[in-house]
Amino acid sequence: MTTILAYADRFTARPGETIAIKASVEGADTFDCHIMRLTGPEAGPLGPKTAHEPLTHPANGSYPARVQAIHAGSFAVVAPHPLLDRLSAVTVQAFIWATTPAKGRQAIAGCWSEPEGHGFLLGLDELGRLEGRVGDGTGGIVTVRLDTPVPERRWLLVALTVDPAAATLTVRQWPVAEPRFDPEVPREASAACTVSAKSTGLPFLLAAWSEGEDARLTAWRHTRTGGHFNGKIDRPRLANRALGAAGIRALAGDTIPPELVADTVGAWDFARDIPTEIVRDVSANRLGGVTVNLPARAMTGHNWTGEATAWPEKPEHYGAIHFHDDDLVDCVWEDDVIFEVPGDLSSGIFCARLTANEATFDVAFVVSPPVGQARAKVAFLASSATYTVYLNNRARFTSPMTHLYHGRMTVMDPVDELMFHHPAIGISTYDRHADGSGVCYASRHRPATNIRPSGRLWNFHCDLFILHWLETIGEPYDVITDDDLHTHGLDLLRNYSVVLTGTHPEYDSRDMLDALDGYLRIGGRFMYMGGNGFYWRIAYHPDRPGVIEVRRAEGGVRAWIAEPGEAHHSFTGEHGGLWRRQGRAPNALAGVGFISQGFDDCSYYRRMADADDPRAAFAFEGIPDTIIGDFGVLQGGAAGLEIDSADPKLGTPPHALILARSENHSNTYELVPEEVAIPHGALNAVQNEQVHADMVFFETPEGGAVWSSGSIAYAGSLSWNGYDNNVARLTTNVLKRFIDPASFAMP
Which of 201, 277, 460, 612 would you call most buried, defined as having the most Cβ atoms within 10 angstroms of its Cβ? Predict the structure, then answer.
């Protein structure tokens, strides 16, 4: 069997720039690459008849195949240093909060080569007991461990000491005082040890041990690792002598005691440089390091009291890093295909289709015009942030709740199977880590199973319905992305007459919302073509393009809930959660905001009295129908999946017209939790009239306007009956009027 996995180094490029595609192929000696423009979705017999446009380019052709490894699991590394080589007597210690102590051997801290049995290591054994190891690399290994497993999700101070003078190896464990009644006592175990703790040439690692050299990896990740620790580590310390119990506790304090300054090799303070991948050594030696695979920062530490719930207010209470054995920020693969964007290539969504034997894998990307140089009147704003946040969402087939959302048993498809058989490609922020904690970081620097023109109709795939409609009506368009909107702001939009969203622009940074708001304030025309948009606040990594953070706090439909005190983004310090909770509900931008979701069936809209207002006459020109969109590729209707409604209390403008409203949704459509004060009574669509989608239009200052469909499923009805339907006609009417430079007058 042949399998292809691949990804690109970037999602957006402009004429003259390059995109590097990285592939891993099993079961074949070569693979073929074909670049094509995507003009619509591959949506089966009910969908539009899509014929992607092949692109003649030197990148097309056959390439040698190879398998490229994935190294998942996060850790921190301090490069080899003479101070580490000279160690004989050793104390290594840290506060830990273990989340899967019984999963097998795990490393906490040390200079340890597992294949060579060389160096020293503080970790957990196969049963989750605190363990110390010392080895000389010639087969002499001494091990000591406690007799009971460490408690799960409890803060402990743990330490390993190697004392050559006394010829002993000792591990110690103290509980950190917590408001609990279950007893926990200090523990200690020692063993005779005549083996040297010399660790010549080894790095100092936190949350992993060394497995061997791998020349393909970057300099800061030159050592292959194993034994990845699940849980938090706080205040790791390394001393060049064997400290007693009192010395260990003193070194674990807020500052290095004067009597221990000369003996302290490293004292790493994770409360510093939180937005970065730097781990700062505050000892005199300045043995700084870096994190690998982006473990979670801005995590509450052993001394967090709840006095501050935002890390910028009291960073010293956020000195923990949460490591996971399934973290993955970048596969670090080598390039296989280089695509140079021709200078005359028009903007659009493209993909490199890789094939070998029976296997196919699509790597999608966007070609945008130079910033500020609009080449069309219409811009399609691709929801690249949302695509990234959902990337490799496995919860659909791992969650026990999926069949309830869908109103039927879950059916696995090839996309699910690919993720099931290749779990190392990483997970989405809709999943949980192996230790049960929520995934707060998303990265596109790994193979994406769900950013392709085929598969489940969701997000990227569903957005291609909108592109096919634009192609069919012959309206030229540029494609721009969330990532560029965050970076370039209003300058990216100001030269377009109309900006259209995708079907599900759910995740937005403050800079993105500011740019869209600014666009409307200068007279822009905005078509919100979906549902559940502008919902979650995100933060972009300050140094890594394509890496996004989301903290699921304070309500909302969410796959996990942020731990107490961990609701602020590590990248920016901003509070995470719903934009609605921060005074920027979607209604203020688009006129509507998320109200419900259901995945068993989609319904239709009923035309409302506001549709007869002369201000909206353009939208319904040639449409006498009362029922709008009782058809469609997405579950049979234009109103569904995730739907939005108007609400003046949340910012829907008072002059907004409700042109149409959905009805007849099933009981799987329930009110979103942020609308529920007391969880009792009529919460679903059958019982509650609040559950519906609203199609809204309103004018904005300077002659601009907004039209919103309020439904993810809406785009799936555009192509029905060869575009001869009221949804396509209405949407085209709105687009043509919005392109018309004639100003809209505020009522």
Answer: 460
